[in-house]
Amino acid sequence: MKALVYNGPGQRSWREVPDPVIQDPEDAIVRVDAVTICGTDLHILKGDVPSVEPGRILGHEAVGTITAVGDGVRGVAVGDRVLISCITACGRCEYCRQGHYGQCLGGGGWILGHLIDGTQAEQVRVPFADRSVYKLPDNVSNEEAVLLADILPTSYEVGVLNGTVSPGDTVVIVGAGPIGLAALATSKLFTPSRVVVVDAADSRRKAALERGADLALGPDEDVEAKVRELTGGLGADVAIEAVGVPETFELCTRVVRPGGTVANVGVHGAPATLHLEDLWIKNVTIVTGLVDTYSTPRLLSMLAAGRLQLPGLITHRFGLDEMQDAYDVFADPATTGALKVALFGDQGF
């Protein structure tokens, strides 16, 4: 089969690799019908995630059709159309029993495209299939479903729920890429009084406003002053970091009010300064996290019922064999205007 292979920092190739095979009774083999690229994949290519070794097939978000299952798989069967979660769960370890699937000790967690071969390929092996794939309703398209593999549960769990977004809050989201826009969509489920989005790209600020942000600011503006003005001098109740660089995290700690929460969602590849000399007296809560995907069934149910809408998050579409072009477009959003890209196999449209 063909797959996108990481060859070391700054190097990738779309090339022939061996087909995946069943290695454990709980495995499933899935034909990839739709797949996408994550900002984390770009971090990997920059060398920010050294645990990813050269030769690894990247990708952890996909929708597909099961073509084979191990003898231990009971919940899904050959022919089922499924969502492949970015998090794999053994279901037996202490963390999985607590619903913290991202911290799985039994061979799961974030492993696809990280510790084992991932989804940016024509086929993928999914361990612990009964707990790591979700059968899709007929009225949910592949394009809609692929957003539930990572960015929707990540923004919802790590940003909105961990950040304790509540009715009437002022929410500041720093970063209007796919994760930031997904955080915008899911924060609005809790009816905040206003959502302010900060991003350097004109196209992404425009996208945020089109999707319901009350205000979109550039980093060259006095973001802190604007937020204080909007909140009577208090600051944001919740600041969600959705980029993964020191400057954006530190901005979140400056715009949050005393007693507020900073929810870090971005994947960081360099240290950020934590200004405890300013923060210690402000009763600020800082939360971080890897998504657990415990919310995926609920989000899928809401999507199927028409209660969760994500208009226009996918801006560019490609065939699966156009993977290299898709990476180039996704990696240069200032030029291309890309938010989320989707790639489809021959049977995935």
Automatic annotation (TrEMBL):
Keywords: Metal-binding, Oxidoreductase, Zinc. SMART domains: PKS_ER. Residues 8-343 form the Enoyl reductase (ER) domain. SUPFAM superfamilies: GroES-like, NAD(P)-binding Rossmann-fold domains. One of its GO terms (molecular function) is oxidoreductase activity. Its cofactor is Zn(2+). The keyword Membrane does not apply. The keyword Metal-binding applies. Pfam families: ADH_N (PF08240), ADH_zinc_N (PF00107). PANTHER family: NADP-DEPENDENT ISOPROPANOL DEHYDROGENASE, ZINC-TYPE ALCOHOL DEHYDROGENASE-LIKE. Belongs to the zinc-containing alcohol dehydrogenase family. This is Alcohol dehydrogenase. It comes from Kribbella speibonae. The lineage of its organism: Bacteria, Bacillati, Actinomycetota, Actinomycetes, Propionibacteriales.
